[in-house]
Amino acid sequence: MKRSLTRLFLAAALAGFTMTGAFAASAAVGSVFVASNAPGGNEILVFDRDVEGGLTPAGYVATGGSGTGGGLGNQGGLVLTNDERFLFVVNAGSDSISAFAIGPDGPELVDTVPSGGVRPVSIAVDRRLLYVVHAGGAVGAQDSVTGFRIGPQGTLEPIAGSSQPLSADSTAPAQVGFSVDGRFLLVTEKATNAISVFPVQADDTLGAGSAQPSIGATPFGFDVDRRGRIFVSEAFGGAADLSTVSAYEIDANGNLAILDASSPTTETAAC
After folding, report:
1. What is the pTM of this model?
2. What is the pLDDT of residues 73-131, one digit of tens each?
3. Backbone angle region of 83, left / alpha / beta, with phi > 0 → left and psi within -120 to 50 → alpha
4. Distance CA 212, CA 230 (A)
5. Is residue 114 within 8 Å of residue 134, measured between CB atoms?
6. In terms of DSSP bridges, do strands 120-126 and 106-114 run parallel, antiparallel, or are they unpaired?
7. CA geometry: angle 211, 159, 213, nearest 5 deg
């Protein structure tokens, strides 16, 4: 490979293609994309996926930004849109976001823009709306979320007045994501053991956030099913074999209600 992988973010594409250049071509039914997070220049590494799930290196594309070279303690640093047309990645070392259009020859860089904060770590997309969460990384650097509109070609337009602070200066955010109907934006905060919920307004900006207690310690990655239920992994500070997962539902006012509290996974540092 061109560079060793220091930290991996993963996204899978169902549509297959073969990328030429750095690696030999191979038959594929799909593709997997990984971000290197390399400080000398972040890259999207492309792998062909065969029918049995096997992976073959198939090339790399520079993001136009830089990584940090270390772990970000995150989920969702690399996001593929549901229609598989665009791929977005954080450049945590240069405080930017890169946008790629997915074509028959693989991902093509179409935009690299300032993220609107310090140390972007996670991206959420709902239709043509994108929000990124920042983990600060410096004294006095506010943890925050910032919004962008996605253009027809995948370019990003900052939304004026969209930035909102998280519940504190050092929340150690792990992931940002939308509710199933797109009405709320959620952020898991590892350091505060909270889940911040922001209402999405008609102009695509956010209302003030509400930090709600996580039922388990160190809320980390999460996903939302088609019925709107939110499933959150809880790392419990990385304690051996103590990780859990909780389920919530969200009401019309953005309040989280517990459906199942901290079911053990019997594993360590679930994320």
Report:
1. 0.89
2. 999 999 999 999 999 999 999 999 999 999 988 899 999 999 999 999 999 999 999 99
3. alpha
4. 14
5. no
6. unpaired
7. 5
